[in-house]
Structure formats: structure tokens, C-alpha cells
């Protein structure tokens, strides 16, 4: 997944965990968000800067 998708997925997990009162799912969501923050930004155009 991309960083943005991980961030959104983690937040959704946290919201669902809050609704159903599931601490394990909340922790999973938090870890997914942290993973997304450590992911380098995506390069949609690849290595375009090296082509010039």
C-alpha cells in the first residue's frame, strides 16, 4: 500500500475500534499510521529527474 492508503486504513481501523471497543484493532491502526509516516513519498513519475 502507499503511505496515504496506509494512513487512511489505519484511521478507519481506529474509528471502528472505538465504535466496537476493540483495543487490539486500535493498536493495529496506530501501527499502520506509524508505518505510513515512515514510508518515503511516492514518485508517481518514477525517476524523471534522472532522465534530463
Topology, pairings included?
Elements: H1 3-20, H2 23-38
Describe it for me?
This is CsbD family protein. Residues 31-52 are annotated as: Disordered. This protein has 52 residues and is mostly helical. 65% of the residues lie in helices and 0% in strands. It has helices at 3-20, 23-38. The longest helix is centred in the first third of the chain and has 18 residues, at 3-20. It is rod-shaped, with a radius of gyration of 15 Å.
What's the shape?
Answer: rod-shaped
Mean pLDDT level: 87
How large is the share of residues in beta strands?
under 5%
Question: What series of H and E elements makes up the topology?
Answer: HH
Backbone structural class: mainly alpha
Q: Main sheet?
A: none
Low-confidence stretches: none
Radius of gyration: 15 Å
Distance between the termini: 29 Å
The helix fraction, in percent, is: 55-70%
Number of strands: 0
**How many helices in DSSP terms?**
2
Region (Disordered): 31-52
Organism: Bradyrhizobium brasilense
Protein name: CsbD family protein
Amino acid at each position: 500500500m502507499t503511505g496515504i492508503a496506509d494512513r487512511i486504513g489505519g484511521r478507519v481501523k481506529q474509528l471502528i475500534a472505538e465504535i466496537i471497543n476493540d483495543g487490539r484493532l486500535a493498536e493495529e491502526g496506530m501501527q499502520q499510521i506509524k508505518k505510513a509516516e515512515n514510508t518515503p513519498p511516492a514518485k508517481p513519475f518514477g525517476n524523471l529527474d534522472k532522465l534530463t
